[in-house]
Amino acid sequence: MNSPPCKALPERDQSIMKFLLAARRKREDTRERYFYEWGVIHVALMITNPSTQRAFARYAQHFSIDAVDDDVLWFRRSDMGWDGMSDHWLRSMDDLKLAVSGEDYKVRMQPHKFGGDEFCVELTDGREMYEAPGFQNGGVKLIHFLRKLPQYTEAQFDARMREEHGPRLLEALRPLGILRKYVQNPRLPLDPALFKGSLFEQGGMGNHAMIEEFWFSGPEDLQRLRAASAWDAIRASYDALAAAGSFSMVTTERVVFDYVTPGRQTPRPAVLTPGTLEWMIDQQGYMGFNIPKPSGAPPAGK
Fold it and tell me: What is the pLDDT of residues 153-164, one digit of tens each?
C-alpha cells in the first residue's frame, strides 16, 4: 500500500531534555500491584507536588505488555524484566536536581517506594523522525535501548543513526502503513552524583547511546512487521550499529501531563495556583500533623 505523506512535525522547544527510567516492581509484588501503585498513587503525588510540577514539562508512563512474542522483536527483552518505563521532559539540569532533591519530594514522594531498587537511567535529547497524519498519543510502543558498537564514537554512532539508519528504517516501514511515529533519543551526559540519596542512586546510568521509540496501533502490527519483507534489511541495519546488551520493551503509553507540545497541552496543576484547595493543603505542610502549633507559627515543613 502507499505510505501516507509525512506532515510537518509540531515545533518542539529545543531546550527540552528527556529523563528516561526503565524500572521494575519489588519481587514480592505482582505486576498488577505495581501498576496500581505507579499509575494511581504515584501519579496523585506527582500532580500535587510543587517541585515536581515546576521541574517536569511532560510526564508519560509506559506499561510493559507480554502480548508480543520475543521472536517478533529485533532485540530480546532485558533479563532485568522491566515492568515499565517513565519519560520525563525537563529544560535544565537544575530542574532535574530539583525533581530528586526538593524538600517536598523528600517528604511526600520519596517515602512512597513502590518499586525495586534497580533502574535503567538515561538522560537524552529527542529527535522526531516521523509522525503520521492525525497522530495521537497512546497505543502500543516498541522501545529500543541501544548500546553502540565499540568502533564508533558517540558522534559517529549518532550521525549514522540519524543519517543512515533512520531513513532506511522509515523507507522500509512507512509503506506497511503501521508506523504511527518514530523518535530517536541520543544520549546526553549524566552525572550519577546528582542522584545521591535518591531512589535512583543504585540505578544503572548512561549505558545506552540511543533510545528509539516506535508507535503502533496494537500488538498485531508487530506481528505484521515480522512477516514483512523489510525485516531482514532492518535487522542488517541494526547489526551494523548496535552491540550486545541492547534490548527491547513492548509497552502501552499513557501521557499523564504535557505542558509543552503544541496542540496537546494539558491544564496546569492546581497546586501551583494560589487560593486553590490543592495549594492550601500544600501550604499546611506534611509533617507534625498531631503536634499543636503556637499561634502565628509557620506551617510544618515550610
Answer: 999 999 999 999
Q: Are 256 and 46 in contact (CB under 8 A)?
A: yes
C-alpha cell of residue 206: 548512561
Mean pLDDT along residues 22-30 = 96
Question: pLDDT tens digits, residue range 217-265?
Answer: 999 999 888 888 888 889 999 999 999 999 999 999 999 999 999 999 9
Determine the distance from the C-alpha atom of residue 169 to the mean position of all C-alpha atoms in its chain, rounded to a whole number: 22
pLDDT digits (tens, 9 = 90+) for 79-122: 999 999 999 999 999 998 888 888 898 889 888 999 999 999 99
Residues 6 or more apart in contact with residue 137 via CB below 8 angstroms: 60, 253, 255, 264
Nearest CA to 19 out of 85, 102, 109 is that of 85
One-letter identity of residue 42: H
State how far the Cα of 289 lies from the Cα of 262, in Å rounded to an integer. Answer: 42
What does pTM read for this prediction? 0.88
Confidence label for 296 from pLDDT (cuts 50, 70 and 90): confident
The bridge status of strand 115-124 relative to strand 127-131 is: unpaired
The three grid cell numbers given for residue 112, joined into one nine-digit string: 512512597
Residue with cell 527540552: 16
Question: Rounded to whole angstroms, how far apart are CA atoms 112 and 49?
Answer: 13
| Mean pLDDT, the chain, integer | 89
